[in-house]
Amino acid sequence: MNHLEIAKRIARDAGAMIKSRLGTSYVTDEKSSSFDLVTEIDRASELMIRQRIEEQYPEHTFLGEEESFGSGERFVGRLEQASAEPFLWIVDPIDGTSNFVHNMPGFTVSIALACRGELTAGVIYDPCSDEMYWAAKGQGAFVNGKRISVSNVDRLEQTLLGTGFPTDERARAVGVECLGELSGKCRSIRSLGSAALQLAYVASGKLGAYWEYGLNVWDTAAGVILIQEAGGTVTDTAGRPFDLFTKNIVASNGFVHQPMLACMQPTIHA
Length: 270
Ligand code: IPD
Ligand code: CA
Ligand code: CA
What we know:
This protein is of the alpha+beta class. It has helices at residues 3-20, 40-56, 72-83, 97-101, 169-183, 195-203, 217-229, 257-262, and strands spanning 28-30, 37-39, 61-64, 88-95, 108-115, 118-126, 131-136, 140-143, 146-147, 160-163, 188-190, 209-212, 233-236, 249-252. It comes from Paenibacillus validus.
């Protein structure tokens, strides 16, 4: 079985475990703030994914949100090292923990593989809709076996946008400024509570574009390769190409990318 098939199988099993605990009691902790939640299910999901990947590929490198590479400079240093590895698995064990905690659908498992810093495969599984999104470099993007592509809408006023409210307060404030800027210019704006799900929705043409400040590589990696393979464009908010260090993201069908960039705030272009 190849990397992609293994990732799909693991994401499906982790998703089923998470969904089986929806609405049950579990321990919830706040990380950096009351916006930033983690549950014992996030940790259990990451452990399961990590163990399954290590069983298959003991020599590969693993980067999961919860095991934490540390923060700040320590994180950047470790990511620099990891991004030089021939096989780096990048995992968000539950993307959309707030939805999960509030007993709502809209949480996903996100697994990506990068080879020396280049994304080669990505899987996003939504256990509530049973939608499995995947992409592999040069092979296209799919949902449940059906090829997907980005939308062909080329006017912002006909575009449905997605965004998120990041845990970092500064990033959240800048994102809200963009929301103010964009709200009169597009059809409408959704915030679905999972960055990975919204990136998958851009790849499948449901959303025309998505932006968010202050994300991490585990939120974005799988979604980015999906969009690239579905014909879309992903950059940072200053228009530079996406890489594993990108925190402020604009992802689109390509046609509305420039108008989106024009509405981004220059304040935290890292
Ligand atoms: C969060 C979700 C949310 C986004 C936040 C992320 P988590 O991830 O993707 O949609 O707005 O910025 O931190 O904490 O649920 O894995
Ligand atoms: Ca996340
Ligand atoms: Ca998470």
